[in-house]
């Protein structure tokens, strides 16, 4: 097979890049090791920054998003027995939209297939070759047969465990990472949300988050130990713990319902530099992961490929190389800003098993400062809705 850009991975990054390239008249082939059903239904992030919403609209992909997405103009912080709203739109002029990552993926796949763009599902990339030549090769296996995809460039959008990053020679990349001493237990429940905006709760028993996916479906999270066994969390225990951590203000209570799904997700930070080597360009979880507290994962992936799409378009249109050369440095400025914000939110809201009273008091002091300082609240709001340029 031959195409201009070989894209490994059919998550939001790979699919969005394919769509943007198509709009510039650039051909691509997307390889995805999982089935279409799997990628359209795996639960991931659900918060879109203003810039991500604007990108989807510019790309002609926002019809369903605009109908079904839930626009939020603030978030609520709960701590020390009180509640405080951060009015993000009032402070920044921008907002977030709650719209599940799987819904973004469904829209991108539908758009790709509508124009006849190839997505090869259940096609596992097994290796990359010739990245330092003008004709790189992506080797893959589909239907029990080995095949090759030849291209001008390779976009590695295949996540942390994919083959793309591993194809870079040893010694080229520098890794920065941190593992947090806790995880999130997440549940999807058939329960109408009891709130209009997300609640972030700091509680002595640990962090909790109240989110939603639709007017009928709630998405809720609890801080748990990183080695926690999901079998130890029957539905009754989950709801009891959510009540303890969230029902800390007067005249408010959870809306409960059947738990549809539950899982435990470790918390970590991870960045690799640079985000390119020769004709391989890395994007999304392949090169950076953030703890979900700041809701940045999918948004960073989309920002990466928006840059990469423009850079490739400039190369094909006029032979310009400046945008491709600057891709890694430009993307990493946003990545590190998001890393800091996610670390800050995580540190402010989570409790440690061995946390001393001094650290707990510092957390409460920080939350009080956000609640009383317009400047500090504006900083949180700007980072949460997404900085237009970094």
Automatic annotation (TrEMBL):
One of its GO terms (molecular function) is 4-hydroxybenzoate 3-monooxygenase activity. Transmembrane segments: none annotated. It is an enzyme of class 1 (oxidoreductase). It holds the Pfam family FAD_binding_3. Residues 2-341 form the FAD-binding domain. Gene3D superfamilies: D-Amino Acid Oxidase, subunit A, domain 2 (3.30.9.10), FAD/NAD(P)-binding domain (3.50.50.60). The keyword Flavoprotein applies. Keywords: FAD, Flavoprotein, Oxidoreductase. Its EC number is 1.14.13.2. NCBIfam families: pbenz_hydroxyl, PRK08243.1. PANTHER family: P-HYDROXYBENZOATE HYDROXYLASE, TRK SYSTEM POTASSIUM UPTAKE PROTEIN. This is 4-hydroxybenzoate 3-monooxygenase. It comes from Micromonospora zhanjiangensis. The lineage of its organism: Bacteria, Bacillati, Actinomycetota, Actinomycetes, Micromonosporales. The gene is pobA.
């Amino acid at each position: 097979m031959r195409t201009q850009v070989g894209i490994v991975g059919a998550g939001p990054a790979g699919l969005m890049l394919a769509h943007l390239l198509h709009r510039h008249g650039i051909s691509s082939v997307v390889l995805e090791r999982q089935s279409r059903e799997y990628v359209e239904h795996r639960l991931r992030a659900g918060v879109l920054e203003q810039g991500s919403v604007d990108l989807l609209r510019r790309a002609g992909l926002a019809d369903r998003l605009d109908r079904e997405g839930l626009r939020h103009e603030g978030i609520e912080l709960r701590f020390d027995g009180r509640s405080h709203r951060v009015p993000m739109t009032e402070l920044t002029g921008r907002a977030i939209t709650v719209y599940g990552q799987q819904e973004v993926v469904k829209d991108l796949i539908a758009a790709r297939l509508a124009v006849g763009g190839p997505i090869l599902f259940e096609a596992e990339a097994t290796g990359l070759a010739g990245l330092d030549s003008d004709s790189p090769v992506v080797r893959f296996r589909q239907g029990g047969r080995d095949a090759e995809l030849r291209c001008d460039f390779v976009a590695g959008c295949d996540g942390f465990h994919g083959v793309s990053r591993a194809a870079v020679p040893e010694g080229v990349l520098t890794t920065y990472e941190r593992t947090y001493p806790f995880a999130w237990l997440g549940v999807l429940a058939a329960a109408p949300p009891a709130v209009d905006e997300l609640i972030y709760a700091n509680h002595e028993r640990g962090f909790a988050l109240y989110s939603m996916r639709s007017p009928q479906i709630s998405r809720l999270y609890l801080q748990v130990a990183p080695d926690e066994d999901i079998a130890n969390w029957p539905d009754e225990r989950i709801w009891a713990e959510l009540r303890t951590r969230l029902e800390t203000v007067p005249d408010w209570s959870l809306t409960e319902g059947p738990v549809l799904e539950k899982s435990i997700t470790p918390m970590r930070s991870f960045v690799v530099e640079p985000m390119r080597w020769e004709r391989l360009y890395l994007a999304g979880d392949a090169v950076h992961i953030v703890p979900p507290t700041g809701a940045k994962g999918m948004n960073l992936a989309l920002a990466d490929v928006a840059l990469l799409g423009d850079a490739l378009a400039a190369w094909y249109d006029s032979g310009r190389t400046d945008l491709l050369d600057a891709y890694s440095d430009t993307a990493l400025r946003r990545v590190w800003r998001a890393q800091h914000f996610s670390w800050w939110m995580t540190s402010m809201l989570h409790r440690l098993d061995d946390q001393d009273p001094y650290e707990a008091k510092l957390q409460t002091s920080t939350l009080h400062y956000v609640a009383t300082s317009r400047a500090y609240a504006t900083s949180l709001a700007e980072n949460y809705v997404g900085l237009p340029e970094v």
